[in-house]
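Ticket #4471: structure output looks truncated?

Reporter: J.K.
Steps to reproduce: submitted the chain below (250 residues) through the standard prediction queue, then opened the result file.
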Amino acid sequence: MIELSLLSGQTAVVTGGAQGLGFAIAERFIAEGARVVIGDVNLEATEVAAKELGGDDVAIAMRCDVTKADEVDNLINTAIERFGALDIMVNNAGITRDATMRKMAVEDFDAVVAVHLKGTWLGTKAASLAMRDQDSGGSIVNISSISGKVGNIGQTNYSAAKAGIVGLTKAAAKEVAHAGVRVNAIQPGLIRTAMTEAMPPEIFAQREEEVPMGRAGEADEIAKTVLFLASDLSSYITGIIVEVAGGRHI
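Returned output as attached by the reporter:
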């Protein structure tokens, strides 16, 4: 008996796919039979990532600033033109500009909200329209953060944007469910990536101690949860927020 992969023949778009969680998600999708278009503001790094993922047959690299509607539209249109459809959209692109409110510049607040919240809105809007036009439904997965649930000191911009993604996800899910488009979100906790490993070791260790499971998560543990929400395994699930945080902040 031949077993089909979970995403066999499907096409996905992943923003912020050049590294970290985005790369891990794209890698997991390809392992499950999908073709992936990855977008990132760093085109050179995105091209390197696409080559590592298997090249043009399965992974296409594009420069994409998720705060610009035309670039997001271009990302989605390329997926449809090259692979014939859009089945999955993962809105993962993000930045940090950490500082306490007293020290945070207005520009740093605006930049973080624009990339995370506006970028997710643009991606959700464009993907849902494409999925409705092709009349075959689809799955949109938005990457929020546990910071959007509890708030972190020095992250009023990031926490606000990530909390906004929760509301956006729920509202969008209600709007497009009738068209067979599902919209869900994930709130990662402390995940071992280049960004978190750049923390001072004592801060990382302190945060790890706050996790009931006693360890930081791995990027592929986020990717596997995204895979579940992207695939037909979650065919009757929409508008939910999944915490992937080892029990932290329950």
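Triage note (M.O.): checked the attachment and the full token line is present. The mean pLDDT is 96.
Status: closed, working as intended.
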